[in-house]
Design a protein that fits this description.
Elements: E1 3-10, H1 12-16, H2 20-30, E2 33-40, H3 44-50, H4 60-67, E3 72-80, H5 82-90, H6 103-107, E4 116-118, H7 122-132
Antiparallel strand pairs: 1-3, 1-4, 2-3
The structure holds inosine-5'-diphosphate and magnesium ion.
Residues 54, 59, 63, 93, 111-112, 114, 117, 120 line the site of inosine-5'-diphosphate (IDP).
Length: 138
């Protein structure tokens, strides 16, 4: 049990579809606190840094293309076990496997358009928050 901070991105498909408000509302209703929010277009370099762990995967090029295809809403969220709480609310990576009631389970069907990103560990949260909120958080 620990208060954590984590990075969420509403991906370009989520922003395009007008789901940003719904997603923020779900996290706030759960009790997670907004510590940062920024609508931003990710550069190729930022995307490659953000997804560095997937560099060798065959879908890396597609992933970078997609995440840079339009604005994303970057959120810094804080709360008890925030990293796991957010991951659980997001649902499985492949939306076909995501449980109803999760964000992917309610709004997505395709792996490549799965609406949301959330940090998956303390290390990745630290790394990713520094990319999107280089000036720190409130
Ligand atoms: P996550 O977003 O649930 O943490 P990761 O394994 O970190 O899942 O993968 C990052 C993103 O890359 C996924 O959200 C998804 O959009 C995409 N992705 C993951 N695996 C595949 C794949 O096998 N084919 C195409 N895209 C994939
Ligand atoms: Mg991931």
């Amino acid at each position: 049990m620990a208060i954590e901070r984590t990075l969420v991105l509403v991906k370009p498909d989520g922003v395009r579809r007008g789901l940003s408000g719904e997603i923020v509302a779900r996290f706030e209703a759960r009790g997670l606190k907004l510590r940062g929010a920024r609508l931003t277009k990710i550069s190729k370099a930022q995307a490659q840094k953000h997804y560095a762990e997937h560099k060798a995967r065959p879908f890396f090029g597609e992933l970078v293309e997609f995440i840079t295809s339009g604005p994303v809403l970057a959120l810094a969220l804080e709360g008890e076990s925030a990293i796991l709480a957010v991951r659980t609310m997001m649902g499985a990576t492949n939306p076909v496997n995501a449980a109803p009631g999760t964000i992917r389970g309610d709004f997505a069907l395709l792996m490549g358009e799965n609406i949301i990103h959330g940090s998956d560990s303390k290390e990745s949260a630290k790394h990713e928050l520094a990319i999107f909120f280089p000036d720190g958080l409130i």
